[in-house]
Design brief:
62% helix, Arc Repressor Mutant, subunit A, three-stranded antiparallel sheet
């Protein structure tokens, strides 16, 4: 596992929760959105276990939506009030961490 995927693994919950806060989504759709925003390292295989864990923690809830034209229904996820509070907390912590890391690395940019 390379360094980028290790770093991403630590923030995947926060990224997925932020995407779901924007609008309810299903797993493949979230993988596509992550890739479009520069996080192409995340595959569906990483997303579904994370979504299940987040659902058990009460951060999101899943519901089924019928697919127009047939096919099996898709499981969409929406954020819960607990998830909104957690996302706010994670965002504040991320901002502090990002500023600290940037301050340390700034001396090495050249």
């Amino acid at each position: 596992m390379d360094r980028s995927s290790q770093l991403l693994r630590g923030v995947l919950d926060m990224c997925l929760l932020a995407l779901i806060a924007e609008e309810p989504s299903y797993g493949y759709e979230m993988a596509t959105k992550l890739s479009e925003r520069g996080l192409e390292l995340v595959g569906e295989g990483s997303i579904y276990p994370t979504l299940s864990r987040m659902q058990r923690a009460g951060l999101i809830e899943g519901y089924l939506v019928e697919v127009p034209g047939g096919g099996p229904p898709r499981k969409y996820y929406r954020i819960t009030p607990t998830g909104r509070r957690r996302l706010r907390s994670w965002t504040e912590a991320w901002d502090r961490l990002q500023r600290g890391v940037a301050g340390i690395l700034e001396a090495h940019r050249g």
